[in-house]
Amino acid sequence: MRTHCPRRIVVVLSTVLAWALGLAGGNTAAAQGMAAVEAVIGNNFGHLPMFVGVDKGFFKKHGVDVRLKVVSTGSEMVSAMQKREVQIGDMSVTTFLKARHAGDPFRVIALIMNDATRANADEPLAIVARKGSGIRPGGIEELKGKRVGLAKAQTSDEYLKMVLSRRGMKYEDVTIENIMSPPALAPALKDGKVDAVVSWEPYNTMVLDSVPDSYVVQRGGGHLSYIMVATVHETMIHSNPQLIRNFVAGLAGASQYTRQNRNEAVHIFAKSVPNVDLAVAQKAVQHISYDPRISPSVMQAFEAAEDDILKLTLKDAPRLNIREQFGSSFLTEVQKAHPEYFNDLPPLPGETR
After folding, report:
1. Of 21, 50, 277, 353, which one has the fewest beta carbons inside 10 Å?
2. What pTM value is reported for the model?
3. Mean pLDDT of all residues belonging to the chain
């Protein structure tokens, strides 16, 4: 005999099922069997593909629900990873290497801001001075005795050390004003509290746009390769390699979209980072490369960054084995599985297509 389930019972069962799924993950992604991960990133253009990957659904397309924790500095990124507030840390190569020297068990799983064709792509970094500072364009030696605003112990600080060192100058030759919040650089320069500032994009371009008669003393210069790396705790590489593989695939897709749609990417960035001047930001983003490939040039860049850290910051520290800082070859696997995410990139030196 055929029986019928009363409508009221069906509704109750549906409610119970929805409640159970909510306990399992608390969101639609969990109901779809999608892994949720927290990632800490910076409020600058070095992390732009991460914003794009979330907004345009690239991570979810590959089965990962990425949630972003946006901070201002590399120190905050490392702290979030140390406290296990996040599973993925997006940070600069110098921040990563210093964390590894401090004993943090992080490994690189992907590259975000990067130029795989060169070992010294540092155009997002710049030194900007104000009118009347006595510092001429290109006049690095004229920084001596001047007040320079930057975020101490961050990539801008390391960059300045390298620039000074290669001109035969000492870090102590300048007076550092520690300005940890990049948006505060422009007011400090405008008000004459500092003679020059050092930062990354979009903040260099914001300074140039908002401080009358400010100018570039030096942009880039081939002093280091300014790379943003995606990192995880080493244990995660062994405990959940498929999640990492899916994340890297989503990031590769997001990186290509960012390369091909820079103006839209800037609008996406402005949704999460307040007070972004879109006209300025669209100029700033042109200085950045989003090539996620690992290449011999990238390895040279890591080695050079390690050289400079040991020479200028962590003197007498034992040298890291750079190749051991990378996790399993997730990107290689993703390149094979999704060649369409890389087909717009230039060939690497010695590579034929």
Report:
1. 353
2. 0.81
3. 90
